[in-house]
């Protein structure tokens, strides 16, 4: 079953790279939507069915913490899995994000396999899923 | 954050190698007049303490890393993409550097693009790290403490 993915990052280039990594990874992606900050992500969620969110933390307007709080407060969205892809390294801040409901954390700079692994784990797929052709050479 | 250069060199190397597929050298030779295309800056702060990391890089270098990052040919990347990538470079290096030197409580700001006038700057080699690629100077990284008004 393909999953609809929402990528939230204030860098358009980074959103493009993450999207390419997902496409190259063999992950079954349906629609891929993008948002430049947490508020834009909430606007997207009002109008689209999303299965998983990949979000940065440090963004203008509404950061990743604001997004996690907003999701937690809304029953329809409170179970939506969010994986953070961020430069944040402060363990207290990471812990805070996990307590707010984040399902995982990938630190930038990342390797393509980091994203693939998290996507499969969060969506309940096993890691020994047979890789798509050319997957081992997945790059940007 | 004294003795910052070893941690900064490791942070820059890890980010550039992992995300941009580029190996840079940290040249002892500094060229303050090197014409730089764009600059980006990120702030690290803890209470009233604040440090700024500033990148100034040449046009060919930022074009190359943008092309590598986006998987495009160098002549396909535009100015907006190069500026976005310059900001993201500061963001990732800032976060990586902070993870290496953080002794508790430091926060990372949001990266900004700088309008550049003049060259690479950074006359003071104690706060400035020259970058080179294949033996050619491609820019500088500078770390400055910022005094607080409070």
SSE topology:
The complex is a heterodimer of chains A (140) and B (150).
Chain A (H helix, E strand, L loop, with lengths): L2 E6 L3 H14 L3 E7 L2 H10 L4 E4 L8 H10 L8 E5 L4 H9 L4 E4 L4 H11 L18
Parallel strand pairs in A: 1-2, 1-3, 3-4, 4-5
Chain B lengths: L4 H15 L18 E9 L2 E9 L1 H12 L8 H23 L5 E2 L3 E3 L13 E6 L2 E10 L5
Antiparallel strand pairs in B: 1-2, 1-3, 1-4, 2-6, 5-6
Helix pairs in contact in B: 1-3, 2-3
Give me the number of helical elements of chain B. Answer: 3
Looking at how many chains there are and whether they match, the oligomeric state comes to heterodimer
Strand content of chain B: 25-35%
Class derived from helix and strand content of chain A: alpha/beta
Biggest sheet statistics of chain B = 6 strands, antiparallel
Largest interface: A-B, 24 and 28 residues
Strand content of chain A: 15-25%
Radius of gyration of chain B, in Å, reads 15 Å
The end-to-end distance of chain A, rounded to whole angstroms, is: 24 Å
Shape estimate of chain B: globular
Number of strands of chain B: 6
Question: How would you describe this structure in keywords?
Answer:
heterodimer; A: 140 residues; alpha/beta; 5-stranded parallel sheet; 5 helices; 5 strands; globular; disordered C terminus; B: 150 residues; alpha+beta; 6-stranded antiparallel sheet; 3 helices; 6 strands; 33% helix
């Amino acid at each position: 079953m393909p999953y609809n993915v929402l990528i939230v990052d204030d860098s358009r280039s980074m959103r493009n790279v993450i999207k390419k990594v997902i496409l190259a990874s063999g992950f079954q992606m349906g629609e891929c939507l993008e948002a430049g900050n947490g508020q834009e992500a909430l606007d997207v969620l009002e109008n689209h069915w999303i299965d998983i969110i990949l979000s940065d933390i440090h963004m203008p307007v509404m950061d990743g913490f604001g997004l996690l709080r907003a999701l937690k407060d809304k029953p329809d969205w409170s179970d939506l899995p969010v994986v953070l892809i961020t430069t944040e390294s402060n363990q207290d801040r990471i812990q805070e994000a996990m307590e707010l409901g984040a399902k995982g954390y990938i630190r930038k700079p990342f390797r393509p396999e980091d994203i693939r692994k998290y996507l499969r784990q969060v969506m309940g797929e096993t890691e020994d899923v047979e890789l798509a052709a050319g997957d081992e050479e997945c790059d940007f | 954050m004294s003795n910052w250069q070893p941690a900064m060199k490791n942070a820059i190397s890890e980010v550039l190698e992992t995300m941009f597929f580029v190996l840079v050298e940290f040249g002892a030779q500094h060229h303050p007049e090197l014409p730089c295309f764009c600059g980006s800056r990120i702030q690290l702060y803890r209470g009233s303490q604040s440090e700024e990391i500033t990148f100034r890089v040449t046009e060919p270098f930022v074009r190359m890393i943008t092309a590598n990052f986006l998987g495009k040919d160098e002549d396909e990347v535009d100015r907006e993409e190069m500026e976005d990538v310059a900001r993201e470079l500061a963001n990732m290096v800032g976060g990586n550097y902070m993870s290496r030197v953080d002794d508790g409580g430091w926060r990372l700001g949001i990266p900004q693009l700088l309008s550049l006038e003049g060259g690479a700057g950074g006359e003071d080699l104690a706060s400035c790290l020259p970058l080179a690629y294949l033996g050619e100077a491609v820019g500088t990284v500078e770390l400055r403490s910022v005094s607080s008004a409070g």
